[in-house]
């Protein structure tokens, strides 16, 4: 027989003190992130919360996203992945798949990026990040501009500066991945930036390089 309904008065119900704040923060995070699959994302959110890990939450709501691709990737989602996985130089494929799934990104796009990068079980995170920027930027210079905008500590709308050493790693990796770009083109391009970088205390911003002709187009 079904159990009879039990009536409780307000004094009998013990509401955990932290519950309202947990639900409030969760709701704000869901609105800001706009996950494709709310239940899947919610599981990832509360799993990360219980473990004290970086949450799968965008910094802000992305309105009219220009860079959104058919894969579902956006700058905000890639930046969230970066916050989750950049705590170490490498991450495991298992970790990447878990975080990717938690952000409701399609598996086929992940498989394409893993194949393109020929990654093993341990994945160099900045190399994978560079491929993510490439999927958003299209051209080499545009991809590096996306990287600067996501990695910078400048305020939104600022110059989007990043350390030149980081830029070198990203640029060199993507240029070599092209396969047709001569090493002297890579070296000459980086050398041409050094004077401006020196004036900026070792930092580089998109305005320093975006006007250059895409080196991959030059090489081809």
Features:
disordered C terminus, mainly alpha, single chain, 5% strand, two-stranded antiparallel sheet, 4 strands
Radius of gyration: 22 Å
How many E-type strands? Answer: 4
Structural class: mainly alpha
Overall mean confidence score, pLDDT: 89
Q: Could you give the order of the helices and strands?
A: HHHEHHEHHEHHEH
The helical percent reads 55-70%
Strand order of the largest sheet: 1-2
Number of helices: 10
Name the poorly predicted regions. 214-220
- Tell me the fraction of residues in β-strands, as a range: under 5%
Q: How far from one another are the termini?
A: 77 Å
The coarse silhouette is: elongated
Largest sheet: 2 strands, antiparallel
Tell me what you see in this structure:
The chain contains ten helices and four strands, in the order H-H-H-E-H-H-E-H-H-E-H-H-E-H. It has 220 residues and is mostly helical. Helix 6 (125-137) crosses helix 8 and helix 8 (164-178) packs antiparallel against helix 9.
Question: Mind sketching the topology for me?
Answer:
Layout: H1 19-33, H2 38-51, H3 75-85, E1 90-92, H4 93-102, H5 107-117, E2 122-124, H6 125-137, H7 140-151, E3 162-163, H8 164-178, H9 183-199, E4 203-204, H10 215-219
Antiparallel strand pairs: 1-2, 3-4
Helix pairs in contact: 2-4, 3-6, 5-6, 6-7, 6-8, 7-8, 8-9
């Amino acid at each position: 027989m079904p159990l009879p309904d039990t009536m409780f008065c307000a004094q009998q119900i013990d509401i955990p003190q932290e519950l309202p704040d947990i639900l409030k923060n969760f709701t704000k995070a869901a609105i800001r992130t706009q996950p494709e699959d709310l239940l899947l994302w919610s599981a990832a959110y509360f799993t990360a919360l219980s473990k004290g890990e970086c949450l799968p939450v965008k910094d802000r709501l992305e309105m009219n996203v220009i860079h959104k691709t058919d894969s579902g990737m956006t700058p905000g989602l890639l930046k969230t992945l970066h916050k989750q996985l950049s705590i170490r130089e490498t991450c495991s494929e298992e970790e990447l798949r878990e975080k990717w799934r938690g952000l409701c990104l399609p598996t086929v796009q992940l498989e394409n990026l893993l194949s393109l990068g020929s990654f093993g079980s341990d994945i160099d995170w900045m190399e994978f990040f560079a491929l993510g920027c490439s999927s958003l930027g299209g051209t080499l210079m545009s991809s590096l501009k996306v990287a600067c905008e996501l990695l910078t500590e400048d305020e939104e709308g600022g110059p989007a500066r990043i350390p030149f050493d980081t830029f070198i790693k990203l640029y060199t990796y993507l240029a070599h991945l092209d396969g047709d770009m001569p090493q002297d083109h890579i070296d000459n391009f980086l050398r041409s930036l050094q004077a401006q970088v020196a004036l900026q205390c070792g930092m580089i911003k998109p305005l320093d390089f975006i006007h250059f002709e895409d080196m991959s187009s030059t090489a081809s």
